[in-house]
Amino acid sequence: MNHPHEIRPDLDEGIDRKVLSQLRTRFLTLNHGRLERAMEGLSSRQQLVLSLLPLFFHVNHPLLPGYVSGTTPAGISHFEPDPRLLLEAQRLTRSFAYKARHGNPPRPIHGLYLMGSLGTLAQAEQSDMDVWVCHAADLSEGEQAELRKKCQLLEAWAASQGAEAHLFLIEPHSFVQGERDNQLSSDDCGTTQHYLLLDEFYRTAIWLAGRTPLWWLVPVYEELRYQRYTQTLLSKRFIRADDCLDLGHLAHIPPGEFVGAGLWQLYKGIDSPYKSVLKLLLTEVYASEHPQVQCLSLQFKQAVFANRLDLDELDPYMMVYRRIEQYLQARGEHERLELVRRSLYLKVNKKLSGLARQRANSWQRNLLRRLSQEWGWDERQLALLDSRSQWKVRQVAVERRTLVAELNHSYRFLCQFARSQNTSNRIDQRDLNVLGRRLYAAFERRAGKIEFINPGIAPDLAEDTLTLVQSANRKEPGQYLWGLYNGNLGVHEWEHFAPIKRCRELLDLLAWAHRNGVIDSSTRLALHPGSSDLSEFELFNLLGSLQHSVPLPLPGVSDERLLQPSVVDEMLLLVNVGVDPLQHHRDLNIVMTTERTDSLSYAGVRENLVLTLDQITLNSWNEVQVKRYDSEHALLNCLRDYLNSLGSAEHRPRLQVRCFCHNRAQAIAQRVEAVFDTAQALLGQGLNHRYLLQVQQHAHVLELHPAAVELITLDSTEALVNYLCEERLDYSPLHLDGNALEDHDLAHVLPLGQPACIQVFYRVQDVWADVYVLDEHNALWQQRLAYHDESSLLLPLQRFLESIVFRRDAQLPLDKLHAQGSLDILYYQLMPAGPGKARSVEARQAPTRTIGTPYYDVQAIVQPGSGSNVQVTLYCNEQEFSGLEHGDQLYAEVARQIIGQRRDAERYRCYITDLDLSGLLADGQGSSNLYLRYKGELELALNEALAHM
């Protein structure tokens, strides 16, 4: 339905100059309101900068800021300074006198526009001024150079007045052609965006002086015929060419721009997630509508044509929020919507709780208050957000889960969108891969990796006073754990409080607290060492060693380093943490002599004084990892893993060995360091060596062993299938002889095996289906599953396989990855469906899912436990569940969490979507078959728990 004051200038029915003038007046009325709002939020000196910029581009005067020479292009179309502006200029320079230029002098500056957050809900004291200086096309290179120099001088003058200004030169005709080689705003990712930047310009720009946009006068329904419509306006003299500035239209946005915009915002979001959430979601909204995208600038223009000129509702940030709100509500994604609301509130940064209510009202605060009431936020919610600067670990950890889930969702969405639109050219793919590795390094969980929980959420997590406690692990009798608690707690007080963090090993806890800034140089620590030998002296030195090896803040990681697999830059080995080796041997009734001998074969009884090793590494991707060695062969196992990690690479980490135990600490550290230095030197000689090492009464030799060939005899089909399901280290084709497996589905599956891909085969049998997977080494995995439809059968497996392929790719040099590509995942269906023998195999397309379709993430991390056991930690939509907290009820707790998140009560199957086994694999690699076998075992335990609920 048309608005009563809506203007519809139609080419066929004739265009009225009066109507066009009325339209321009409406835009200028809005513009005036926005400019007033922008000025209201600026200091008096910042206001002066914004007011005087047009004058400084209009005249050249040696005593005015920005003067380069008398020949610098000057003069703004249709601009004449008013007396108030001239008075301000004379206050700067007494001798300045303005002389109006008569006749028709050239005015090469066509217009000045302020774009960005000024004049919007999100304007803040530190908001910068991005100004587009649009100029004539016929300026010589010398004139453009002078104008560019003038912009630099004016930016410096603005800075002296307390204003951060960025002035960008724009030649409109070249801009319309997409020709530019520089950024056009301080938040611009460069030349990969044109239409999205233009969209932002048209809905945020405030006209300061000169010509007004021709785009204002083109109805939305004529956007597709923009050229024809504007040509008619100009050729029939409804408007004059020198009254308008043409920067182009928004009839179509190429899909590649959504990928480029998303990449840029994701890159920024890794360190400042709140600032990126709104733009990431808007990009998702636009991309989800492609190719019928109704961008916000067109919505804005439609409102002006309809005479809906409410400054609040047409505020750029309000329009972004309303569009995202509509999108997420339609999808039922209320948790994501709450994150968007929090992000907007924190972006605006106008506190509404407590004493903040007594502050003078502003239009921003009033609008934000109206929004918060609309959202149903109470005083408690407002107070929590207003105290963000004081947030500590608990609140940050909760918020991080939501933010990381959103960033990962955006990355998956971008990858899927890029594939669906065929926008992944080589440059896009490189950028996607580098960004994927940045996300992987920042947020991916792996065994032993220390999670960084504060990506721009709160300014400071340091605690003044903490208590460190070792206690018995009630969930695992005979085992101990370490906990970190707020405050200075007495011997039994800590039992009544929940810890900030709990870990099995001390160094895991200390490295986490250091990496996240929870413990800094001013933190006071109370220690309750429990059954350990840890002293305050040792604790102080452990923290000092960590601070030295992992100095904070960590420097940024370059793209060049991300193009290569991560390598260890710093390695810290801490020997006998919390253990006194001599006391340990006394406790075992071993009599020690006072003879000072080798720490690896100590005294007359030849005991090894190296009982434990804690290894902390910082790699080239800024990942901090911790690994503990504590068996009788701790030193040998650590040395073996260390040498294997070096391989033939020339890069060598900086190795430090430290020991702070009660007895012989320095001698132990020196002996361990000597062993590592010797072994590393031998490895560096590039020959086969054998290193004989005496530890206790045993001699150990490090050497290479040749592979062996063996004959395997199998006496049943079941045994054959079990053999085929064993993990393989390399690809080996399988040749079926005669009628082998004639009556089995595998007779059709096995001959199709091929290297460098993962092949998924499935056969539907009424209410269930058999799934077979041949991995990249031709090892088999099989599973029988309930069958509803192909999508629910294959999509969970597809997500899992994509995640392990991503992990594999992250460990390859990017040039090698480009050369050999990721592992393809291929799909086949065995036919016919139903009972009886399979007769053929038909290739199928990969299962398709609606772009951006949400699903429940369940990630598992499997690490070595005591003896032959493993420790499993599960993360359900970023929330952690571990055996440390839940013991043998781990799977029941996870099943309960999953059921609670489902929209209906149906007990359909739970799936693992991602799995990390790096803690079990010395080289960090493993075949897809191994991952699938662990997946099957974990899902079995999880679904059995689900069935018993």
TrEMBL record:
One GO molecular-function entry: adenylate cyclase activity
GO biological process, one term: cAMP biosynthetic process
Cited Pfam families: Adenyl_cycl_N, Adenylate_cycl
Superkingdom of the organism of origin: Bacteria
Every Adenylate cyclase class-I N-terminal domain range: 20-216
Name of this protein: Class I adenylate cyclase
Source organism: Pseudomonas alkylphenolica
